[in-house]
């Protein structure tokens, strides 16, 4: 296992792709969190509307 990690870190192209993939994943997660925070009040309002309609 260590040999594989060493070869990955020695190869600059693989390291570049690896870091690029991680940064893209982090950006997607961050964007999703921001979107979720923006949609939360709207979602709460929709839930309240559903409850009032049921009554």
Give the structure's gist in a few sentences:
The chain is mainly α and 55 residues long. Helix content is 95%, strand content 0%.
Structure description:
The mean pLDDT is 76. The N and C termini lie far apart (61 Å). The chain is mainly α.
| Rg over CA atoms | 22 Å
Largest sheet: none
Secondary-structure element pattern, one letter each? HH
**β-strand amount:** under 5%
- Number of H- or I-type helical stretches: 2
Helix content: over 70%
* Measured distance between first and last alpha carbons: 61 Å
What does the overall shape look like?
rod-shaped
Low-confidence stretches: none
| Mean pLDDT figure | 76
Number of E-state strands = 0
Structural class: mainly alpha
């Amino acid at each position: 296992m260590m040999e594989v990690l060493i070869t990955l870190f020695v190869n600059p192209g693989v390291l570049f792709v690896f870091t690029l993939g991680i940064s893209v994943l982090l950006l997607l997660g961050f964007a999703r969190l921001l979107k979720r925070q923006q949609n939360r009040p709207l979602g709460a309002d929709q839930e309240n509307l559903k409850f009032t309609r049921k009554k």
